[in-house]
Amino acid sequence: MRITDIRELSVPLEGNVTNAVVSFAEHTVSLVAIVSDVVRHGKPVVGYAFDSIGRYAQGGILRERILPRLMKAVPESLLDASGTRFDAARVLQCAMRNEKPGGHGDRAAAIGAVELAIWDLNAKLADEPAYATIAREYGRPAAKRTVDVYAAGGYYYEPGQGKTLGDEFRTYRDLGFSAFKMKIGGAPLAEDLKRIEEALSVAGSGSHLSVDANGRFDLETALVYAKAIEPYQLRWYEEIGDPLDYWLNAQVAQAYAGPIATGENLFSVPDAQNLARFGSMRPGRDIFQMDAGLSYGLTAYARMLTMLEAHGFDRRQCYPHGGHLINLHIAVGLGLGGCEAYPGVFQPFGGYAAQCALGASTVRPSEAPGFGLEQKAELRPVLTQIMA
Ligand code: MG
User: Fold this and answer.
1) 184-235 pLDDT, tens per residue?
2) What are phi and psi of 30, to 5 degrees?
3) Which of 18-22, 54-58, 352-356 has the lowest mean pLDDT?
């Protein structure tokens, strides 16, 4: 068995929305297709994946470095001992040949997309959904197939725009969500507090509402906000300062009683380990949001979980960033706390296929082979395009 072709396509993200730091309108995502020499129903079996939402495609890194290494590898060196499946850890090792440690950046997302396509391919070779392949690989029970999901959004609206934050959350509530996340830090504190109260009028209580500062605050602002929002007893206070400022995270964790969440912009096991060691994250309370597609794929993500558990954390404290099908299968397969959803935005990648059961703030993957990307109507045109 061997790889016959690997393709990559840079796909624009439809997301004309803004958080406290970036506009998503210019963002792109790398879609990867790994073509095998296994033929089923007259067609080669193809593994598809993408990195994640909220950054940029990595076509240059993929074309110039990662894909040539994999295509030049001895085919058997990328297989497991049985020779019937690709070995994701070996693929990761081959992709990283001649790369120095540290400075992970866009390389981690480029390799993440490729490594995840291997999981889609392996699941299709076994003719099963990816969550089942993942659970078996890591010795997890595959019984619980539904995970907690919340609607992430809560953007800023200009007065007179004809839409408010409350309108946005009511739309999510009508779709079956009862937990929500909103942006903060893009307006003065007094205005953000009014927005939080508007959101709470839909969410019902603080336990159903999280706030996300997108890494914007310095320590002083972080602590002012912490004191102001503490009485709301929110579900969590997310990405408060710079993602690599573990000291700031620790200061807030020591001053703020409620849960805090971070990790979506940490792209390696050593970065996540620094958060666990130096960020004062609290076992049983705080939330880790590392995203396999941005951090070398599932093999590395599973190593992060092992590391977190060694530090006394529970994997149910993990809610990967990126509301899409790949992270849904990962959350189910690895028994994580849950995942997020961005209803209606970040197409074609955001959200779930119609065949996934979504309701009562839970979501369940379908039984389609692999990650089931082919079932998602918005993705089908780009899956066709990458194979044309
Ligand atoms: Mg976030």
Assistant:
1) 999 999 999 999 999 999 999 999 999 999 999 999 999 999 999 999 999 9
2) -85, 120
3) 18-22
Question: What residue has token string 């590898």?
Answer: 73
End-to-end CA distance of the chain: 23
The reported pTM is 0.96
Cis upstream peptide for 44 (omega within 30°): no
Question: What tokens does 167 get?
Answer: 């309108």
Q: Is 132 helix (H, G, I), strand (E, B) or coil?
A: helix
Q: What is the dihedral of CA 333, 338, 341, 346, to 10 degrees?
A: -50
**Are 59 and 382 contacting, i.e. CB atoms less than 8 angstroms apart?**
no
Determine the distance separating the centroid of ligand 1 and the alpha carbon of 356, expressed in angstroms: 23
Q: Give residue 212 CA to ligand 1 midpoint distance, Å.
A: 6
Which residues fall inside 5 Å of ion ligand 1, going by CB?
212, 239
Question: Given pLDDT bands bounded at 50, 70 and 90, which one contains residue 343?
Answer: confident
120 Cα to the center of ligand 1, angstroms = 26
Query: What pLDDT was estimated at residue 23?
Result: 66
